[in-house]
């Protein structure tokens, strides 16, 4: 295990990933008092280094630091993106962009079969599966 404990790096209580062997501080997380883990796993007696990043608060893992950063707002409660029309706040910029379509009436996703339009791609996909499969 790593000789540097998580408590010596941060006063915030941090749970280690079950695969953690090394602790790497990240500038983007340091400002939140959060540290990024690099996970390791061993299979068949060979040590395989994976680049999986782990949330320090739960068991969520991802190969991309951006996904971890976006996930962390679940724990921090931060909602920096605010709708200028109704003042609703969002954790991700993309969620605000999607929300603004409700105010503008924009429906960029159109069904190729019946022509019905949708504000979100997921709604179009659900429509296609339910109505045209």
Automatic annotation (TrEMBL):
<dbReference type="GO" id="GO:0000981">
    <property type="term" value="F:DNA-binding transcription factor activity, RNA polymerase II-specific"/>
</dbReference>
<keyword id="KW-0863">Zinc-finger</keyword>
<keyword id="KW-0479">Metal-binding</keyword>
<feature type="domain" description="C2H2-type">
    <location>
        <begin position="52"/>
        <end position="80"/>
    </location>
</feature>
<keyword id="KW-0539">Nucleus</keyword>
<dbReference type="InterPro" id="IPR036236">
    <property type="entry name" value="Znf_C2H2_sf"/>
</dbReference>
<dbReference type="GO" id="GO:0005634">
    <property type="term" value="C:nucleus"/>
</dbReference>
<keyword id="KW-0677">Repeat</keyword>
<dbReference type="Pfam" id="PF00096">
    <property type="entry name" value="zf-C2H2"/>
</dbReference>
<keyword id="KW-0862">Zinc</keyword>
<dbReference type="InterPro" id="IPR013087">
    <property type="entry name" value="Znf_C2H2_type"/>
</dbReference>
<dbReference type="GO" id="GO:0008270">
    <property type="term" value="F:zinc ion binding"/>
</dbReference>
<protein>
    <recommendedName>
        <fullName>C2H2-type domain-containing protein</fullName>
    </recommendedName>
</protein>
<feature type="domain" description="C2H2-type">
    <location>
        <begin position="109"/>
        <end position="133"/>
    </location>
</feature>
<feature type="domain" description="C2H2-type">
    <location>
        <begin position="81"/>
        <end position="108"/>
    </location>
</feature>
């Amino acid at each position: 295990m790593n000789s540097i404990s998580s408590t010596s790096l941060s006063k915030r209580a941090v749970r280690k990933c079950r695969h953690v062997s090394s602790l790497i501080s990240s500038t983007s997380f340091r400002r939140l008092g959060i540290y990024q883990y690099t996970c390791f796993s061993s299979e068949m007696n060979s040590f395989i280094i994976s680049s999986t990043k782990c949330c320090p608060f739960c068991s969520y893992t991802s190969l991309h630091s951006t996904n971890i950063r976006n996930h962390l707002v679940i724990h921090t409660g931060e909602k920096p993106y605010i709708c200028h029309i109704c003042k609703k706040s969002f954790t991700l910029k993309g969620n605000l962009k999607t929300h603004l379509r409700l105010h503008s009436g924009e429906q960029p996703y159109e069904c190729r079969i019946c022509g019905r339009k949708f504000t979100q791609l997921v709604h179009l996909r659900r429509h296609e599966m339910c109505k045209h499969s």
